[in-house]
Amino acid sequence: MPVKLLQEAEGHVVTMELKNGDVYCGNLVESEDNWNCQLESVIATTKKRKTCNLSQLFVRGRKVRFVIVPSMLKHAPMFINSDTKIGGTQDYLLQTIRLLHLTRYSQRMVADQNKLYE
């Protein structure tokens, strides 16, 4: 996932899975180029499915396995096709396919999380 997409997600609710299996879902306040992220109003789910609420959380970028961003970001300006951009149409299509795949995966993750809270 491009760093620009992560930065576009600032101010939105994202879900992060860390390499140790913990999952955090919260409002992305700030992200850095090295994927360090600050979240607010976080619901933390451990590997053993225990949950807790955190007011703030800082995640070190090298610990992140993946990030699920809102599907509305598929319309972000970075995905607008422009022949003046380096790479042109082929790069645009590859990025769009990756984003759609990530969106489908995120929908499954959200459905799984909703089952946990029922």
UniProtKB/TrEMBL annotation:
Compartment(s) of residence: Cytoplasm, Cytosol; Nucleus
Keywords for the protein's UniProt record, in alphabetical order: Cytoplasm, mRNA processing, mRNA splicing, Nucleus, Ribonucleoprotein
Keyword flag Ribonucleoprotein: yes
Stored SMART domains: Sm (SM00651)
Function: Core component of the spliceosomal U1, U2, U4 and U5 small nuclear ribonucleoproteins (snRNPs), the building blocks of the spliceosome.
PANTHER family the UniProt entry points to: SMALL NUCLEAR RIBONUCLEOPROTEIN SM
Name used for this protein in its record: Small nuclear ribonucleoprotein Sm D3
Species: Sphagnum troendelagicum
Taxonomic path: Eukaryota, Viridiplantae, Streptophyta, Embryophyta, Bryophyta
